[in-house]
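Lecture notes, structural biology module. Today: joint structure prediction for complexes of two components.
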Amino acid sequence: MPGERRQFRLLYRDFLRRIVDLDVLSSHGDIQKLLVQFASMLAAFSLTFLFVFGPRYVTGTAAHTRGAFRADLEFLVATTMAVAGLFSVLAWNTVLPDRRDCLILGVLPVRTRTVFLAKAAAVASALGVAVAALNIFTGFTYPFIALPREGLMAALQSFAGYWLAMAAAGLCVCCGMLALQGLAAQLLPYRYFRRVSSFLQLAAFFAILAAWFLRPPGAVPWLPSSWFFGLEQQLSGRAPFHPLAVRALRALLGAVAVAAITFALAYGRSIRKIVEQPDIAPTGRRRGWPRLSRTVLQRPIDRAIFLFTARTVARSRQHRLFLAAYAGIGLAVAFAYARDLLYGPSDLYATQLGLQWNQLNVPLLMGGLVLLCFAVVGTRAIFSLPVDLRANWVFRLTAVHAPAAYFSAVRKALFALTALPVWLACAAGYFLIWPVRPAAQHMLLLSIAAVLFVHVSLTQFRKIPFACSYLPGKSNMHVRLAIYGGLLIFAANICVQIEYFTMPYPWRFAIFCFVLSLAAAWAWRRWSQFAMSPYNWIQFEELPQADIEALDLHNPPSGPPGVPLPPLEAEVSIRPRPIYTLE
Amino acid sequence: MLELRNVTKRFPTTTAVKDVSFVARRGEVTGYLGPNGSGKSTTLKMITGLMEPSEGEILFDGERIERDPMAYRQRLGYVPEEPLLYPHLTGAEYLEMAGQLRGMPARALADKIDGFLRVLSLYEDRYVPISSYSKGMRQKVLLAAALLHNPDLILLDEPFSGLDVSSALVLRELIRELSVRGKVVVFSSHELETVERVSSHVVILHKGRVVANDSIDNLRTLMSLPNLEGIFAQLAIEQDTGGMARQFLEWMEA
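The predicted structure, tokenised, for the full assembly:
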């Protein structure tokens, strides 16, 4: 075998780069920038955690410090496990060889063992980076708090214990996910495995988020994060022979063993099956979508954009997964609000907000609004991620309508695919459990909120869904996400509190709805001004922000025939010219 | 009539097309030939409007194509060099999308798609995702999508790529019929025999420049050569092909 170690190194480098799907990136995109962005997002969490919770160790008493330390450490272990789990779910499709791997590597003199080891090493490296980034600041401070004894050796033991426990926790979750996938690959025929695998991936995703957000009281000894907290306590010498540490070790060994065996078997099996069978099985004609779209959407362009969007979301694993991420966070936030309904009120204030599930209550009011918001924002976000970028020429070549027609079609697709299903699901739920009046009042409010969310999210969005490249690092995504997410939940919370207190009084509720309607009308008008501008264009390639903006004065601005050119002083006097890059 | 006037395309590191001018008339098939990298596909992309020329102008029926790009695209059908299609859609869904994007009415579109798929022997596979299609099947989908709206200008970039013998014969006949029906057909291919059979007029490109622009009969007479292959070899091939093949074998066996 020619240079197996060299083959391993080459494959390892290639697989590591492909942990993230490169096909979605803009031609100006930089994969390193994307990875640094993710790592910095995790590191930012670590730093924020340290700044928020660190100061109490300076002023608190010894007993207080010990109590806070245990709570913080358990939270850090749980977060590390959640991040490792989410990483495993995101890398789900890259751990087994795909068709491209099989067709390229299958004809080369490369052993299956080498491919397997290179994949495993790439996944382990990426996981290691994620865990290290997440603990980069806390990992160098927390181990030195509340040391069991004095001296350098105790400090070093605590430091090593912290990092070993975190690494073990991450590895356990990652191997657990791989074991789940490996078992499915062993037990199911390949074609069914492909289908079931995507559902398992989504289920795993929701399970991880639910476990992180909803920690039911009483279930702590059964939560894996508690086991690895126990392992940390034992390794650092704080609590020798911690009972939960044994569970952690058993879980780790079990997950690693099952993952290693099933994956080694799956490799030999998959490579043959992938070449023999198509990735996507032929299906019968589905009349539902086209018929529905013909009934609801009259214009062919509206139907084209709606069907393309619906089919892409339904069939593209990557897009489904990103959408599930937003929906999962939305569900988790909604469930977090509903904790008191599930586990009983936690404080006196909560009892004032109505905590009988079959009566009007704030947590369920909040649930509908949060779900609607995350569904709209998530779908809008995945619209920016392309599918088979080089195939988007069909949209460029068939662009026989003004850009406004496309933007209007995108708006209809967003309404039809997100706002409408969530609205209908909420209506069914609220009318089932609540009296008609409060349910109808809340549905009215959700309708206004849907109009507001859809128009705000589509303003300045000049793309056809899934047909424009993605440029990582264009904006401070991690900062913006955190700020917008926080603001959104804060605003939704205030809105729901006002709604709860105005609902029994028709006039007050009417005034509240009127104010919200004004906001929705403003968002609609703002979107219309953007979409209907005769100098608008459709964007197919995300471009980096230029350091120096060229005014392009040698090319006079041109618009559609019959439309007068805007004056030079106007905001849009120099129209950015579309840049085509097919070559 | 399609007319290119002194069209040049510059990229940051190279000039792909230099001062290209030719006319493609209705009722005639214009063969657009050249070795790999000579600028054929770049020219066709400029004619489609996917790329902007650095210099020069492109006119269709006497009007610059960028004057009313939407109306122009409505009259244009294009088969690209590579079969780049959305693989998660089925053949029928892709054609449906292309028709809807062009604003075709639903009933007429559905009938047309059924008819096209039957003629192209894709009807049985109409609900199969394009990801499972062979190269030839993808090429047929591209061809159907290009002709779905009955365009006046048809640009075919390597349309025979991947097609089996019978489909290639059908396409050859189709191209001829399209020109008879008054369409402007510009057709780029490396299959010189097919070009000679189908085209009445050829434009030969070499290193981005036009080296021949005439009817095949005139070129044969002018250059005293019996066929298009000889003409092409003399105008566009600089190397000794036999010598190169021998050199390759030497390297292979080294």
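Point to remember: Chain A is about 70% helix and 0% strand.
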